Amino acid sequence: MLTAEGISYKIGQNTLVKDISFSMRPGELLLVLGANGAGKSTLLRMLSGEKKSSCGHIKLYQKEISDYPPQELALKRAVLNQQNIVTMAFSAEEIVMMGRYPHYKNNPGQTDLNIIDEVLQLCGITSLRTRSYLSLSGGEQQRVQLARTLAQIWDIPGALLLLDEPVAALDVQYQQQTLAIARQLAKRGFMVLGILHDINLAAQYADRILMLKKGRKWYDGSPAEVLSSKSIYEIFEIDSDIYTNPRTLKHFFIPKDVPIELNNQISI
Fold first, then answer.
1. DSSP 3-state assignment of 19?
2. Which of 87-91, 125-129, 258-262 has the highest mean pLDDT?
3. Of 118, 125, 126, which is closest to residue 100 (Cα–Cα)?
4. Which of 108, 120, 202, 217 has the most CB atoms within 10 Å of its CB?
């Protein structure tokens, strides 16, 4: 179980996250929505243990996340960051194998090798395994990093998986695939928390949506409970219509046109 109790984060006089409380259990896919600067990535870094909250408590299975030794924490939570900088020409398979480092001392065992095969296949990158990571497209690199993250906790049901903009560099097919993987992992008993900008993807896949504004929790509930024209305007300041797919009963939103007028006398 993951619990956040009144957590805040400040840099100088600026408060990036303010007094957020929520909890999640294994088996849940929680997606976080909010405009740019709402505090989404800061919140994720706090939950991962990368940033220490200015006040409040973050507990992973009743233990303060800051009290976990790095090795033990690596066996309970994995993080897919929005940006992953690699400067050496590792192969895709070597990058994915890095996710198994917490599980062995010298050489990977057969279990580690089997898991690498499984996550490579799941993420659709088996054909890339011997390719240099530096030669891959941005979307291919993102799928390799997803496989690395999955490999880290693949055999630890109940672990926490944190995804920061996991579909940002992906085309439509792999956006759907990535969120489908996240949903299936939740069904297998993992806790999955991700940050998205795509409201319709969140509505399609999330068990629960947390909406942030100016560092605060604004809405928290199922997609049906929190997604409305009113809530979307409050969070994103855009008018929209909300519809229900009659086949799936999932909500989806269509933004209304934004009126923009340009001066006719534009100098070039």
1. strand
2. 125-129
3. 118
4. 202
pLDDT for 267 beyond 80: no
CA 44/CA 34 separation, integer angstroms: 13
What is the pLDDT, as a whole number, of residue 194? 97
| pLDDT recorded at residue 87 | 85
Q: How far apart are CA 136 and CA 226, in angstroms?
A: 38
Are 7 and 39 in contact by the 8 Å Cβ rule? The answer is no
Q: Would you say the pTM of this structure is higher than 0.70?
A: yes
pLDDT higher than 80, residue 266: no
- 198 — pLDDT class (breaks 50, 70, 90): very high
Domain boundaries, the chain: 1-25+35-73+200-268
- What type of residue is 261? E
206-211 long-range contacts, CB within 8 A, separation 24+: 206/29, 206/30, 206/31, 207/28, 207/29, 207/30, 208/24, 208/28, 208/29, 208/30, 208/31, 209/30, 209/31, 209/32, 209/33, 210/22, 210/30, 210/31, 210/32, 210/33, 211/32, 211/33, 211/34, 211/235
Long-range contacts of 14-18 (CB under 8 A, 24+ apart): 15/215, 16/42, 16/215, 17/42, 17/43, 17/46, 17/53, 17/215, 18/214, 18/215, 18/216
d(CA 40, CA 150) in angstroms, rounded, equals 21
Class of domain 1-25+35-73+200-268: alpha beta
E-assigned strand segments in 182-263: 191-195, 208-213, 216-221, 240-244, 251-255
How many Cβ atoms are within 10 Å of 165's Cβ, its own excluded? 19
pLDDT surpasses 90 at 67: yes
